[in-house]
């Protein structure tokens, strides 16, 4: 079947990698697993051999038809659907447990899929995902490293991430232009432990990373926080005045957010009429 580049169709042809991906999900016996973008079924077969059931969510109608002809409906349910509209909560309720998720992702919507999984965290156990190598580097980056930023904080807020292995373009057909990395994400949200409001904190993190070249303080001013409140919050959170957002841990962002939430003169995300922006 010819591949459709617009749908991110680069099919995995490395059987060793398939087994490593399936094994990275741990013990699947008696469990339902969700596969995002099963394609021609390279990973699906290995999942069906290990799990009680596979929910395979594939947008491409032709591939979905092909998959249904390959697997028994008792083992694999093929849903012709956009994964961004997939109801993980309903699937977890039907399965009776939080779901393991796996996918060699369509790279054109990587960020949207990660945000969808973050939003569905209450229904998820762990995810083993293949993404472009540079994206995996950003997802797993530690504070202070070149790759650390909005994506790292957003993903790591929902649980620890571990890079597993990297594959060259030749492991796929057709070969993509980039290397690909498989990582594991264990869902263990830190919202309660950090004492933050999820939506408010996410908005705050987008604000502090809005402009890479600016200091944290200048990003906060650009977001509309009063200068004196910024100075006080940085002091209280023991963050140097000239710090860049790339240097801060999730815990430091949470402290700052809490101090600013107490002191702010304007609601988060709103620009005060007299706000000084650099
Ligand atoms: N899992 C297969 C493999 O490893 O060979 C295929 C992986 S391929 C990189 C990505 C797959 O995601 C394709 O089959 C593509 O049709 C599918 N896809 C693209 N957009 C999708 C979406 N919005 N929802 C579900 N599947 C999608």
In short:
The chain is of the alpha/beta class and 278 residues long. The chain has helices spanning 15-23, 44-50, 61-70, 88-95, 110-119, 133-140, 150-156, 191-194, 198-208, 216-222, 227-236, 250-263, and strands at 11-12, 32-36, 53-58, 76-80, 99-104, 124-132, 161-167, 172-173, 180-186.
Structural class: alpha/beta
What is the count of β-strands? 9
Please tell me the total number of domains: 2
> Strand order across the biggest sheet?
4-3-2-5-6-9-7
Main sheet makeup: 7 strands, mixed
Mean pLDDT: 93
Characteristics:
278 residues, Rossmann fold, 2 domains, 7-stranded mixed β-sheet, two-stranded antiparallel ribbon, 12 helices, 38% helix
Topology:
Elements: E1 11-12, H1 15-23, E2 32-36, H2 44-50, E3 53-58, H3 61-70, E4 76-80, H4 88-95, E5 99-104, H5 110-119, E6 124-132, H6 133-140, H7 150-156, E7 161-167, E8 172-173, E9 180-186, H8 191-194, H9 198-208, H10 216-222, H11 227-236, H12 250-263
Parallel strand pairs: 2-3, 2-5, 3-4, 5-6
Antiparallel strand pairs: 1-8, 6-9, 7-9
Helix pairs in contact: 11-12
The structure holds S-adenosylmethionine.
Residues 7-12, 36-40, 42-43, 57-60, 63, 82-84, 104, 106, 109 line the site of S-adenosylmethionine.
Textual characterization of the structure:
It is a single chain. The chain is α/β, with parallel strands linked by helices and 278 residues long. It is 38% helix and 18% strand. The protein folds into two domains: 11-189, 3-Layer(aba) Sandwich (Rossmann fold); 193-262, rRNA adenine dimethylase, C-terminal domain (Helicase, Ruva Protein, domain 3, Orthogonal Bundle), CATH 1.10.8.100. It has helices at residues 15-23, 44-50, 61-70, 88-95, 110-119, 133-140, 150-156, 191-194, 198-208, 216-222, 227-236, 250-263, and strands at residues 11-12, 32-36, 53-58, 76-80, 99-104, 124-132, 161-167, 172-173, 180-186. Helix 5 (110-119) links the parallel strand 5 and strand 6 (124-132). Helix 11 (227-236) crosses helix 12 (250-263). The chain starts with 10 loop residues before the first strand and ends in a 15-residue tail after the last helix. Residues 7-12, 36-40, 42-43, 57-60, 63, 82-84, 104, 106, 109 line the site of S-adenosylmethionine.
